[in-house]
Design goal:
The protein is mainly β. It contains no helices and 11 strands. The model has no long low-confidence stretch (mean pLDDT 95).
Length: 121
């Protein structure tokens, strides 16, 4: 079993910062891509930032220059540093990862349960 657990969400005023963490655990053999998505009511989940093992990074246009994704491969952890937060960033943030497990030997996409980020005006 593979699990992804997010932490670090909360309530912050506009212009403030938060750092989200997502830790993978379980029968993980390797992880290729890790990333962050977010979802607000009435909308589909959207990519916020993604990073692959080789270091290639993608950001949503709306967060470029404000958010930074990073990972600690030894700890199966991905981070999202969120600076200059705006009310529009309010959403549930979900971690995901492409994980190769010991049991299956195949890469599958796993999702965390999400962490709420609320940015007040």
């Amino acid at each position: 079993q593979v699990q992804l657990v997010e932490s670090g969400g909360g309530l912050v005023q506009a212009g403030g910062s938060l750092r989200l963490s997502c830790v993978g655990s379980g029968s993980i053999f390797s992880i290729n891509g890790m990333g962050w998505y977010r979802q607000v009511p009435g909308k589909q989940r959207e990519l916020v930032a993604g990073i692959i093992s080789g270091g290639s990074i993608n950001y949503a246009d709306s967060v470029k220059g404000r958010f930074t994704i990073s990972r600690d491969n030894a700890k199966n952890t991905v981070y999202l540093q969120m600076n200059s937060l705006k009310p529009e960033d309010t959403a549930v943030y979900y971690c995901n990862a492409a994980v190769q497990s010991y049991s299956s030997g195949r890469f599958l996409i796993y999702w965390g349960q999400g962490t709420q980020v609320t940015v007040s005006s």
